[in-house]
Amino acid sequence: MPEANTQHLCESARDKLKTAAERLEQFLNHYSLPQLAEEPDEETTRFYKGFLSDLRHLLVFTEANYEKLGVLLRRPNFDKEAAEKALYHVYHDCVNNFFYPKSEGYAEDGRYAYTGQDAIRFRRKPVRAARDVVLDVTKIYEELRDDLTYYESDYLTQLRMQKSGC
Fold first, then answer.
1. Is 108 helix (H, G, I), strand (E, B) or coil?
2. Could you tell me if 110 and 119 are in contact, meaning their C-beta atoms sit under 8 angstroms apart?
3. pTM
4. 130 closest CA partner among 20, 47, 13
5. Sequence-distant (≥ 6) Cβ neighbours of residue 30 within 8 angstroms
6. What are the pLDDT digits (tens) for 85-137?
7. What is the dihedral of CA 4, 10, 79, 154, to 10 degrees?
8. String of b and e for 10-33 (b: at least 16 CB within 10 Å)?
9. Is residue 104 a contact partner of residue 51, using CB atoms and an 8 Å limit?
10. Is 149 helix (H, G, I), strand (E, B) or coil?
11. Residue ranges of the domains in the chain?
């Protein structure tokens, strides 16, 4: 991929990460476990503990990768190799953590992706604010996934080939 394209991709990914981080942070600053688990039975509490933990991890990864891209873009000489590595980490740290949360409080159901319906399905019905924050950032992480699919496997294959001397 040409250097200009890589730089543009870094700028675009950074903007998207910033927007996602702002929305996640706003939600996490306003809601706590007692507010979300209105009916505090054991299963509901476990669901929201996992949900909040997943969002906190996602926020940390999103902010960290946002900062990495910012450092790369502020350098006087753009380092394409470092940029590709950073984009790889955006895909694996942010996109994968969004679509495959550890607690599995929600998941993407590909059968809905082309129907105009929300492809995110929750394990239990969340309160409106929890549902809204996930659906709000879904489009951002979908766009990142589409933009960075190259870095899912082709980037690693390219590195392996360079190391083996092919």
1. strand
2. yes
3. 0.86
4. 47
5. 129
6. 999 999 999 999 999 999 999 998 766 555 556 778 888 899 999 999 999 99
7. -90
8. beebbebbbbbbebbeebeeebee
9. no
10. coil
11. 3-164
